[in-house]
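User: I'm curious whether this sequence folds into something compact or stays loose and floppy. Could you predict its structure so I can see for myself?
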Amino acid sequence: MEIKNKSLNRLLNEVIVLEFKDEIEKLGFKYLKTKNSFKLKKDDLILSIDFSLDYWDKYYINEEGEIVLNIIFTSSIDTIGFTKWYKKNYNESWGFGDVIDEIKFLHKLEDPDISKEDFSYLTPSIKFKNSVSELLHESIQENNVYKLVSNDKDEVLSFIRNSMIPDLIKNSNWDYIIKMIKSEKDFRVHYAYVFLLYYLNKIEESREAFEILLKNHYKKLENNEIQDIEDFKKYIVQRENEYKLMFNK
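Assistant: Here's the prediction. I'll summarize afterward.
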């Protein structure tokens, strides 16, 4: 048998409310139960401290038979202002977000409010799925480096208060967002970057970046690097029209 996901999420929020909510809200963040998150709006950016159970390893039973939750805290920035502007003007959803810090809290449940209704039986298909997940989890864990792994609530709260939130606030600016975006290799991200520069009223930088992307597309056509040439030509025309509207060319 294993604990149902719905029950695990209830236990998770009970831990957050009891152990973390008051302290994090004192620092200006608002607790949003339905989103498993604490959020703070700064200008047109959203600063988030999200909490969840480890996707691959939500909990385990220790040697004393006690339930230990593997709680992940993640801090991130989201460009909510730009996202709304882009949706309004281009009827597409696009935004930028970046994870700043990630830590793991191994929380032992003391006298948990749990009954047999909170458990489900393991069917053969679930057992197979779990075995695959365990193998994937082992390979992912090798490359996953948390800033902190602790079973001490005070240590975790201290890290959130003295490291995670200061790092989040320090990086909640457009210079950091632009640096993060420019490191991406996906050209679709770079098109959104063009519109972000335009949104920030960096018109000349936006125009230059747009022209570089268009030249790269022309070069791909010349070098026969595209399989579906006709569709790609239509795509270029669409972008060219956007360029003309944006820069009155």
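Summary: Confidence is low (pLDDT under 50) at residues 126-130, 132-143. The first strand starts at residue 2 and ends at 3.
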